[in-house]
């Protein structure tokens, strides 16, 4: 567990003035890492740190020469913590490095972001128990949660090639579906296109094949956290997913927020594992006092939508739902690492875990349209009179994540945005 | 479809004498690519071609400088065909390059092989209809094949980090299982460890996200074929796999044969798509005359076992089963490419597809112990008196693959071997 230190002091201010704005996602207490270049420049991507509305170019600053976050991920938590401490000191009001570093700032508005690193393997979990229950109810009203759910952190391998950074349009997939009552399936555009509100957990140091990571060591293998939208084609999924799980319904595109908020930045926002009553304790290899008491993350998650009609009318995005990761997740990130490796599977730096859809216990805290609309049956009404059961072409979705607590500086994740195109 | 040319002439002989042996897997008509270095040398891995019992070092020969097969995979079929033609000419009896190239040979017995390239995404399909039927019967005697099977090339994303080259020991996984009648699951070593006989298909050129590959273009995106053993923990699988598919039961290790046999080498061994009677034609985006008439591969697959007791007694491996890919597969590799990309998923050079277990229609053609033993109920008897329902520690499995037809030179795949360690 990462300790609080002077980098978390809520009174710290930066000489980058925009980092001191109350509403910024990126005050000096955050310092998330990402991969950027100046838009339209044709430059190589390199690693930067978000500070206020700026990016500090770590290559120009002589602090990190890599083209990708992977070497920093691989080099372990001590180096990451050391870099955080140095950045915090250098970006602080009164720092002697101000003049030198001011030349290494690029406005975020002028930056093109990439995925933080080449993602090797991506695993999507299913830790949102309220999501799993709500979706299960649609298929099995009397038995929504399968018996393994409370014992096994259910997860499945996903597609890494189609994970794209925030802002990349996502094309509505075509695929095979079986319309109710039809004699045979048809091939055509997805009719039940949905989003899923998730967190993304990046692996830092890996483990050798055959050598599990214990629950006590698991957090040392985590690098940081992003927002993640696991776009889902529900009609394709319903037809294809038995017996081996979702496939084309999930691999046409997934959107990730480009700034990786480190475990250190999240230290003031840890929460106990909150499980609904009536579930057994995990088996010992997935259990520890630390993970039970502070293994979860207190992150408020919001989903915003702006339809094409709203955009044309100059109307801003509206919020569809809000939930909190700590209320939603039945398993902690450390439990996911311990589970993933318990059979010997090797994790590698830059691997990504999706949390699964993080819906809260009530319907307005849903992390997907499938839940908000009860399987498409109850349409969501938007302020301009439009209705949605599933996503239409031109709909732009944006996930936001915020950590706010008394006596801590508010930090955020930046945007995880994407628009559906036909 | 690759045409036959002079590189396939069964009368061709090489100046590498071992390539002219009747029983070699690697005559001059094969020329598979792999990644090697001299064992114990600490050298960098580089690309080689198998010829008889030798490896031709393409870097030393000045033919290819890459450390990995990926650049050759990415550069498309024309360059691969050109390289094949040049290698065929250079290794032929009477070639003027003999003296220069003889210095670039390394005996395979002295070579350490790696996986052919860094594998980005790995997808495992389920094309073996007899396997799917036999396994389905164990769970659903009256309804073994689900309705989607005859319409959708069922597949799921797999784990690429734990794919290891032939010869790497595989550790028996520990995991969660639910013993029959037990009040709660237990964590411990897998009790039902199995193998699966598959082919591996490497992707050559990729496609952009959102741009499907048509069935007619699909084979141009395939690079070549390997053997693949998808080790499976059946007890872990049974407990974890609902609702999102197999996960830890499959990701503790998968073994690949290190030599990639190109589509060109397989040109004399194409076969029609042989589907059991009573199934509908595929939907148009998965159908073509070419794939129906010659989309399958006539590859004989064999599974051999040598237990620890056999090894200690100096007894050779014995054959457990034989099948043929062309009798087993309900979908062609081209159909898998067209399906995988039809929703917009982007494939990348070096991605790997597993075929799924390629069992023939009769039980002695089973590609797994699950089938050979009818779910573990009928033990397999070995010649030394030992019996197996599932694999024990010290069991060494070897898959072999051979293409043999009249008027064609026999070619093979080399070994896909691994031993279970406790």
TrEMBL record, chains A, B:
Segments of this protein annotated with the region Disordered: 165-185, 356-378
Active-site positions on this chain: 131 (proton acceptor)
Residue span(s) of domain Fumarylacetoacetase-like C-terminal: 149-416
Keywords for this protein: Calcium, Hydrolase, Magnesium, Metal-binding, Phenylalanine catabolism, Tyrosine catabolism
Molecular function GO labels: fumarylacetoacetase activity; metal ion binding
Pathway membership, UniProt: Amino-acid degradation; L-phenylalanine degradation; acetoacetate and fumarate from L-phenylalanine: step 6/6
Comp. bias (Polar residues): 356-368
Binding residues annotated for Mg(2+), in chain numbering: 230, 250, 254
Cited InterPro entries: Fumarylacetoacetase, Fumarylacetoacetase-like_C, Fumarylacetoacetase_C_sf, Fumarylacetoacetase_N, Fumarylacetoacetase_N_sf
GO biological process: one example: L-phenylalanine catabolic process
Cofactor: Ca(2+); Mg(2+)
Gene3D superfamilies (UniProt xref): Fumarylacetoacetase, N-terminal domain, Fumarylacetoacetase-like, C-terminal domain
Binding locations of Ca(2+): 124, 196, 198, 230
Annotated Pfam families: FAA_hydrolase, FAA_hydrolase_N
EC number(s) stated in the UniProt entry for this protein: 3.7.1.2
Top-rank EC class of the record's enzyme: hydrolase
Sequence positions that bind substrate: 126, 140, 237, 241, 357
PANTHER family linked to this entry: FUMARYLACETOACETASE (PTHR43069:SF2)
Name recorded for this polypeptide: fumarylacetoacetase
Organism: Ramlibacter albus
Gene: fahA
